[in-house]
């Protein structure tokens, strides 16, 4: 019988830098920051950050609906949705395209122009900087997923700012080790 090995999910912590030791903004990071800020009328407001792929299970549209229907929240903060990388929604298939199309329609329905950022591209190496940007605005990370069996984004975002979950599954139990 072939040997089988369980490789639990994990994270490469080599990209994690304590905030006081964070490098100065370089050209690539400046591009990332400008790709987020170009959407926002008032980029100095606190950032509500959600980072996930645009999968229906990630519940991004419910977050967007809640943001769109809560005037005090819209006046207080911006919403930043980092939803993977895409070139053309029409070239995507299945649930991801559906989530992105619904998101665009909701931004229009609730007139959220200038309040919601949804950049098309980011690199994996940018993820710690995205969290630092949210922390710099005194923002919050939210994970609206219906279920989060491992929660890699929960581990990644531990960069010194508050976060909020709808439901929390014990990550250690879900790994089974």
Task: Give the secondary structure arrangement, pairings included.
Blueprint: H1 27-37, E1 47-51, H2 60-69, H3 71-76, E2 78-82, H4 94-109, E3 116-117, H5 127-136, E4 140-143, H6 152-156, E5 163-165, H7 171-175
Parallel strand pairs: 1-2, 1-4, 2-3, 4-5
Helix pairs in contact: 2-4
Could you explain how this protein is built, in words?
This protein has about 180 residues and is α/β, with parallel strands linked by helices. Helix content is about 35%, strand content about 10%. It contains 7 helices and 5 strands. The chain is globular, with a radius of gyration of 17 Å. Residues about 170-175 have low confidence and may be disordered.
Q: Which percent range describes the beta-strand content?
A: 5-15%
Class inferred from helices and paired strands: alpha/beta
| Tally of strands | 5
Write the CATH homologous superfamily. Glycogen Phosphorylase B
Low-confidence parts lasting 5 or more residues at pLDDT below 50? 168-177
Distance between the termini: 23 Å
* Helical content band: 25-40%
Q: Output mean pLDDT.
A: 78
Shape-level CATH architecture: 3-Layer(aba) Sandwich
Write the element-wise H/E pattern from the N-terminal end onward: HEHHEHEHEHEH
Number of domains: 1
Count of runs of 4 or more consecutive helical residues: 7
Sheet with most strands: 5 strands, parallel
Report the principal-axis shape: globular
Rg, alpha carbons:
17 Å
Strand order of the largest sheet: 3-2-1-4-5
CATH class: Alpha Beta
**CATH-defined topology:** Rossmann fold
